[in-house]
């Protein structure tokens, strides 16, 4: 039977041949995660995703969530799937076993997330947010907050959310108006309204713990006056049992184009004047703390995107192998499976290159987390790589995932547009990844105005150094050496553009003009990072073929080399031109008078 979430051979390749994840088990931290254990974990996750989560994907979309007098009912099939996620301890696989985690490497956890999110993105979103909220408590919480919440959240008995967005504070969180007043006992009374809160209310867990951004009365305006609070749906008694209902209620849910199994809630805090929360971290340092969770969820957008794109590719591939339509030009006149048609092959190879590259990138970032954890001395280097790659993993990857799912619809022809096949849902669902956790426009600005300028350009320099290691490795091969030269030339071009952008950003009259090109710059950087990942893969494949691969493996490795060659002569070939356009851009979008846009 055809695979439908992620190609097992490719997941194995990234884990074992590209990142050598079992070598991590030489460190005491990960001693028990040898290859056998890693394979067992991934097989378990795959089984759960395919057998239990995938069957809830379509019913979850059709049934959606129902709001009823403050309560929210999730799709019926989600209850069992959530319980299985809990039973299998899939919410916090990489966290400390002391708090209910499994202590596995992030790289392995990434493979489990790809499968589980691919099984049902809307349901697994609740698990991912629960992990993020609990991790926030683990990092910034007091001992008492950790004891009260952590284990139950990592176990999935209680869930977690993030309450940031307000009607007038979306991209600009510093504009939020939710307020907090300190009580005599050290707690805070919170009041305000939040919107678009994923799983703000649901019927899967006994309690819901809300990290909430609010401003303490008298705090400075803007982002410097924002604090972070923990607001549980039910207060927790000293013995850990559930106490009184807190004054935080869902007032309605959104009707959306996708992830319909995930309730997107409007939340009223303190409507009756009795919403009590505790400070998480320090006063007025809330936004910085919240960024830890936001960065985690930005990566989540990356792996959600990967999972949907990968599913779309595998479905399209399977369909193209079986759908017979039209004869080949110059052939025997008999209709053939559409995989034989040039344009369909182009579409499939485009999809494959992006999916492969995205998988390598997302797993590599997780691998950097692991290296950070076990390293002595080069933690900062790995953190720098993670920091500069996050806008690419979130912004670029989610945009490409939409393209991949869209191409998947096209491969199916008219059937892709119907609800008979999963393609249209994959496309609708994945579209959110470019919007939440900071829109892709904000990711592009983050890359251009912060990440490439931080530490006097150290992050970009370290990324370049990492890419050059792959280029050097590829130069040792016969076939990929040519690709290495192309990537090297693009990297030099990108470095020139980075210098020019940094210089323009220092000039007040130019700063806004160069920002017009932020998204194209993210695209060019993302294409280069994809090219890097694909070259890395091709080099390993070429080496494996040279040492005599088995027949089935030979086809896999040939696919790696051809994918890298295809990407080099399509997307990568455009990088130089794109960068030139960015360098020469005058930012005309700033000059057009508002009236000249028309429409009035
Ligand atoms: C399904 C769903 C689930 C969500 N879940 C959560 C959640 O759990 N918790 C939560 O707090 N929020 C959540 N959100 C909210 C989400 O994070 C916001 O919608 C997002 O951050 C954008 O904010 P906004 O909608 O107010 O758009 P706006 O901020 O109004 O942005 C509109 C457009 O303007 C652009 N823009 C804005 N500012 C700038 C700028 N400075 N420079 C350039 N361009 C700019 C944006 O890129 C965008 O294209 C969710 C949203 C959805 C749809």
From TrEMBL:
<dbReference type="InterPro" id="IPR046373">
    <property type="entry name" value="Acyl-CoA_Oxase/DH_mid-dom_sf"/>
</dbReference>
<dbReference type="InterPro" id="IPR006091">
    <property type="entry name" value="Acyl-CoA_Oxase/DH_mid-dom"/>
</dbReference>
<dbReference type="InterPro" id="IPR013786">
    <property type="entry name" value="AcylCoA_DH/ox_N"/>
</dbReference>
<dbReference type="Pfam" id="PF12806">
    <property type="entry name" value="Acyl-CoA_dh_C"/>
</dbReference>
<keyword id="KW-0274">FAD</keyword>
<dbReference type="Pfam" id="PF00441">
    <property type="entry name" value="Acyl-CoA_dh_1"/>
</dbReference>
<dbReference type="InterPro" id="IPR009075">
    <property type="entry name" value="AcylCo_DH/oxidase_C"/>
</dbReference>
<dbReference type="GO" id="GO:0050660">
    <property type="term" value="F:flavin adenine dinucleotide binding"/>
</dbReference>
<dbReference type="InterPro" id="IPR025878">
    <property type="entry name" value="Acyl-CoA_dh-like_C_dom"/>
</dbReference>
<comment type="similarity">
    <text>Belongs to the acyl-CoA dehydrogenase family.</text>
</comment>
<dbReference type="InterPro" id="IPR009100">
    <property type="entry name" value="AcylCoA_DH/oxidase_NM_dom_sf"/>
</dbReference>
<feature type="domain" description="Acyl-CoA oxidase/dehydrogenase middle">
    <location>
        <begin position="162"/>
        <end position="267"/>
    </location>
</feature>
<keyword id="KW-0560">Oxidoreductase</keyword>
<protein>
    <submittedName>
        <fullName>Acyl-CoA dehydrogenase</fullName>
    </submittedName>
</protein>
<feature type="domain" description="Acetyl-CoA dehydrogenase-like C-terminal">
    <location>
        <begin position="464"/>
        <end position="591"/>
    </location>
</feature>
<keyword id="KW-0285">Flavoprotein</keyword>
<dbReference type="InterPro" id="IPR036250">
    <property type="entry name" value="AcylCo_DH-like_C"/>
</dbReference>
<feature type="domain" description="Acyl-CoA dehydrogenase/oxidase N-terminal">
    <location>
        <begin position="40"/>
        <end position="156"/>
    </location>
</feature>
<feature type="domain" description="Acyl-CoA dehydrogenase/oxidase C-terminal">
    <location>
        <begin position="284"/>
        <end position="448"/>
    </location>
</feature>
<dbReference type="InterPro" id="IPR037069">
    <property type="entry name" value="AcylCoA_DH/ox_N_sf"/>
</dbReference>
<dbReference type="InterPro" id="IPR052166">
    <property type="entry name" value="Diverse_Acyl-CoA_DH"/>
</dbReference>
<dbReference type="GO" id="GO:0016627">
    <property type="term" value="F:oxidoreductase activity, acting on the CH-CH group of donors"/>
</dbReference>
<dbReference type="Pfam" id="PF02771">
    <property type="entry name" value="Acyl-CoA_dh_N"/>
</dbReference>
<dbReference type="Pfam" id="PF02770">
    <property type="entry name" value="Acyl-CoA_dh_M"/>
</dbReference>
<comment type="subunit">
    <text>Homotetramer.</text>
</comment>
